User: Fold this.
Amino acid sequence: MRFLATDVVGVMIIEAEPNRDDRGGFARLHCPEAFAAAGIPFEPVQTSLSTNPARGTLRGLHFQKAPYAETKLVRAVRGRIFDVAVDLRPDSPTHRQWVGTELSATNQRALFLPEGVAHGFLTLEPDSDVLYQIAPAYTPGHGAGVRWNDPAFGVVWPASPALMSPADAAYADYDAQD
Assistant:
């Protein structure tokens, strides 16, 4: 695995390094020792799958409030998405900054998001499935979000969403939140 720093502190792009032969390929996608050696102590306890039949589906920008904040490793296992991380940590030198990258089943990239970073994605093709590895386990009732097009962040999405949940569409601007 290769660990690539982004412009947002603690957010990393993880690239798989598959071994290929006539049968296909095989790649490590997570190894606690390799992550720790890269300065990322991450041992997921929950794995979740987001299925998205339609192109242009937007999910996010979501996060869990402290003390139930989550770290996540996100990857597209089918299709393609534009994946976004927004730094909501008030004491971070990259507070309010964002990073976006394309994740696909083909490029086998993943995005690692530390606690305090909001996450969202836009599907770039139909039938895009997104695998989440999470620590600690999700705790209901502590989820929150910020608006996907909040001017406080200026995320540049590759297209306008065609589909999103009413909750995602109704999130308040970051500056309007408590």
Remarks:
- The radius of gyration is 16 Å.
- The chain has a mean pLDDT of 95.
- The chain has one domain: 2-176.
